[in-house]
Amino acid sequence: MKTLITGGAGFIGSHLAERLLCEGHQVTALDSMSTGSWTNVQHLSSEPNFRLVDGSILDIDVLGPLVAEADTVYHLAAAVGVKLIMEQLVATLESNVQGTENVVRLAHEAGNKKVIIASSSEVYGKNPAVPWNEDDDILLGPTSFGRWGYACSKMLDEFLALAYNKEKGLPVVILRLFNTVGPRQSAQYGMVLPRFVSQAMAGKPLTVYGDGLQSRCFTYVGDVVNAIYDISQVTGAAGQVFNIGSDSEVNINQLAETVKDTLGSSSEIIHVPYNNAYGLEFEDVARRIPGIAKIQSYIDFQPRSDLGSVINEIASTIKSAHSAA
Question: What is the pTM of this model?
Fold first, then answer.
């Protein structure tokens, strides 16, 4: 099969490229390198079935031919990280909304190519009733708070893709990803686990935003890409929305302590007000827990819950990067 990964040099995209290559598929990775990195896929450069294209999903002249030649499009390109989203609101909305519109329209025009779209748990907003299931109601904050624009943009992506499925027969699958973690994830854009690991390794304080009682379910990137691939092979998944995440909950204070204990760090843990980190117009989500019964009814998905091994893997990657530099 010929596959296209938008955002293919990113954190998740690069791991997905590895999985697709292992399955014998041809992989074209399209990335603008705004948050992706050549170093994420450098080890794949000698693979005869791998190609990296430097370009944007907003550029029809680049995107169109790549979609046309692909059998399946894995659409992962999007703005990532709370910090980046809060600093680049316009670029976030344009990339998410216009980029996805380009992908689904071109896939339809090219003969209804299969499209797998990476959405986000952010679409659930701040619904207090957890775990969140795919057909649950959505509760967002005010439009004056920029972070909710990201959630709305991903919702619009979903509405548009599903409309193409219902009206035009485009085989699309929507995947709502929950807090994916692992090697190659950058702390630069506000990702909490690589930030904690980097701080602990440097002997710096671990900075917890807010009171640290907000909880998340962290999912190893290997489990995520396996689920993405496996569900993409299920014919009956077209037109469906699936959560992909772990159901093992941990609050951010506990996460910081786990990082310290795992790495044997003496770093202190300090709490930083949200306003200092993201500005005044910010709301956080108290709990973010996926219901995963639906995807488990389609594929064998059993996410691991050992954060310690993930932390050690992230630390090892950081050490290797520093050594190479």
Answer: 0.94
